[in-house]
Amino acid sequence: MDTQHIWEEFSGKLQGFIFSRVNNQFDADDILQDVFRKIHDNIDSVEDDAKIQGWLFRIARNTIIDHYRSKAKNNSVPIDDKEDMFAAPEEEVANLNETVASWLNATIADLPDKYREAIVLTEIEGLTQKELAERLGISLSGAKSRVQRGREKLKEMILDCCHLEFDRLGNVIDYTRNESCCAKCKTQSSCKSSCEKGA
């Protein structure tokens, strides 16, 4: 996808996103021009067109933040308490949450047996921890410990592969594949492709 196609498809959405956070048409127009300059300069770095929208809105969000930081340096606009203004559109947040969630099944499959079983039964099949204890014939405290440890190991495995950035509500707003990616990402194309960014 080239800059012209991006302009035709996304300029209206980006303009609305920027104007709702700047509320000054002149500044919004300047920021939009700056955003498209950055898009034009970096378009070759996008490897997957399916991720283009998230990439565009990250550029817009960062450019808006730069705008407010510049004004803050001139003591004209404080940047404090403006975090909510920089949030990505709900659609982008939902897409990134779904992307990370799509990694879970493959990652759960690599958990040690006892933790995989505990996570599958509670998080996927919906058993309570008490029901898990009864199913496995272990104590309630043992079931709780197994689920907690399973969650911790699952989080560790995902963070071994990717650095995730979250907003205040726990939504994923950005991710980058780590250089020292786990062996699973290096050897399994499905995991590698899901974990790689388009930017």
Give an account of the 3D structure:
This is RNA polymerase sigma factor SigZ. Belongs to the sigma-70 factor family. ECF subfamily. InterPro entries: RNA_pol_sigma-70-like, RNA_pol_sigma-70_dom, RNA_pol_sigma-Z, RNA_pol_sigma70_r2, RNA_pol_sigma70_r4_t2, RNA_pol_sigma_r2, RNA_pol_sigma_r3/r4-like, WH-like_DNA-bd_sf. By secondary structure, this protein is mainly alpha-helical. The C terminus is likely disordered. It contains 10 helices and 2 strands. It has a two-stranded antiparallel ribbon with strand order 1-2. Helices cover 66% and strands 6% of the residues. Strand 1 and strand 2 form a beta hairpin. It has 2 domains: 84 residues, Orthogonal Bundle (Rna Polymerase Sigma Factor, Chain: A); 96 residues, Orthogonal Bundle (Arc Repressor Mutant, subunit A).
Outline the low-pLDDT stretches.
79-87, 182-199
The CATH level-2 architecture of the largest domain is identified as Orthogonal Bundle
Number of helices: 10
Report how far the terminal alpha carbons are from each other: 13 Å
- Total domains, how many? 2
Concise structural overview:
The chain has 199 residues and is mostly helical. It is built from ten helices and two strands; from the N terminus they run H-H-H-H-H-H-H-H-E-E-H-H. The longest helix is centred in the N-terminal third of the chain and has 22 residues, at 52-73.
Core attributes:
transcription regulation; Arc Repressor Mutant, subunit A; Rna Polymerase Sigma Factor, Chain: A; RNA_pol_sigma-70_dom; 10 helices; elongated; RNA polymerase sigma factor SigZ; mainly alpha; 199 residues; 66% helix
